[in-house]
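Hi P.,

Sorry for the delay on this. The queue was packed all week, but I finally got your sequence through. Input first:
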Amino acid sequence: MLKKRIITAAILIPLVIYAVLYLPVPFFVFLTGCIVLGAAWEWSNLMAVKHPLARFGYLLLIACILYWSLLLPIVAVPYLLTLTVVWWSLAGGMVALYPRASAWWGSSRLVRGLMGIVVLVPCWITLNLIRTQQNGIFDIFILFALIWGADT
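Then the structure:
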């Protein structure tokens, strides 16, 4: 297992570094959108959706929301991110109360699907917003180092 993780990292890290450093913003947005859609496909599996058409339906929903979020005025982004902080605070509470409080969300595909939306979409918006800032590339590398460090 460790060997596969090392090989995967050896392949992906240079590609990620290249994408962050050299891709123009529109291509970076498209690439990260594709990655989020891959995550949405996996999230539909976490929702216990087995039928491929239903999984594609969830993927299409996420794709439409990602597209719609591109049309948001920049002044709306802080409000969206504030709601995201509220969501993550609630999610922290759900983790603290697990498994006692999992009955209301554990058996509902709809709730788990909404959870996927509030996890994946703000992540995509924020990553692309950071990328467009003056020191965004540096900030993304710091963020990746923190995440990759925590994941090891």
